Amino acid sequence: LSQDELKKIAAYKAVDFVESGMVLGLGTGSTAKHAVDRIGELLKQGKLKNIIGIPTSKMTHEQALSLGIPLSDLDTYPVVDLAIDGADEVDPYMNLVKGRGGSLLREKMIEGACKKFVVIVDESKLVKHLGGSGLAMPVEIVPFCWKFTAEKLKLLFGDAGCVAKLRTFKENGEPFVTDNRNYIIDLYFKKDIGDLKAASDAILRLTGVVEHGMFLDMATTVIVAGELGVTLKNK
Ligand code: DER
C-alpha cells in the first residue's frame, strides 16, 4: 500500500466517528484532505446531515466549500464536537508535532476547542521522541525583527543543539507567510528535546513567538494505518 493509501485508510476510519449534527474541526494537510473529501461524499449521499465545518486553514476552507460542506468559525461555535487532523510526528504518549504544512496556529486554536481530537497518520509518523527525527519543529512568529526572535529560539536549546531556519519558498527564497500573515521558524534539533512541557513554556514565553507545533496532551484518539492494518489508540 502506498503512503497516500494508508493516509486515506486512516482518514476514512476517523470519519466513522462523525455523527449528523456535529460541529467538526476540519484539519489541514494531505491526510486530513481525505477525511474532508469523505465527509463531503457522505453529505452528498445523505448519510450525514446538518454538519458544520470549522476549517483549520484557507486551503481546507476552499476544499470544504467546493464539497458543499457548510462552514462557520470559532466565534460562532466556540465548542467543537470533533476535530480530525493529521500530524507530522506522534510519540507514544500521543503528543504531536504539527505545522509542517504551516497551519499550526488555526489548527491548535480549533483542536484546543474540541471535545474530541482524532489524529490520523500513516505509520511513518510514529516516533519515540518528538523533535528527535531531525525534521522541522515549526514555530509561528511575528515578522517584525524575525532574526532577533530566531536567535532567541536557538539560544533556548543550547545543549540540545538547535538550528533555527526561516521557512522560505524554494523557488524564490521569499519567506513563507501563514494564513495569519506571520512567519515560521523551523527548529531542527540534534537530539531529543527532553522535557516537552518545559520546552513549550520556554518557547511561548519569548515575545514575538505566536505559537509552536508541539501539540501536547491534546489528541484524544490516534488512528495509525500501517502495512499490517489500522490501529486505534485512545487517551
Ligand atoms: O501542517 C500540519 O499540521 C499538517 O496537519 C501536518 O501535520 C500533516 O500533514 P500531512 O497529513 O500532509 O502529512
From TrEMBL:
Cross-referenced InterPro entries: NagB/RpiA_transferase-like (IPR037171), Ribose-5P_isomerase (IPR050262), Ribose5P_isomerase_typA_subgr (IPR020672), Ribose5P_isomerase_type_A (IPR004788)
Span of the signal peptide: none
Record GO terms (molecular function): ribose-5-phosphate isomerase activity
Reactions listed under catalytic activity: aldehydo-D-ribose 5-phosphate = D-ribulose 5-phosphate
Coiled-coil residues: none
Keywords for this protein: Isomerase
Database matches in Gene3D superfamilies: 3.30.70.260, 3.40.50.1360
Pathway: Carbohydrate degradation; pentose phosphate pathway; D-ribose 5-phosphate from D-ribulose 5-phosphate (non-oxidative stage): step 1/1
Entry's EC annotation: 5.3.1.6
HAMAP family the record matches: Rib_5P_isom_A (MF_00170)
PANTHER family the UniProt entry points to: RIBOSE-5-PHOSPHATE ISOMERASE 2-RELATED, RIBOSE-5-PHOSPHATE ISOMERASE 3, CHLOROPLASTIC-RELATED
Protein family membership: Belongs to the ribose 5-phosphate isomerase family.
This protein's name: ribose-5-phosphate isomerase
Lineage: Eukaryota, Viridiplantae, Streptophyta, Embryophyta, Tracheophyta
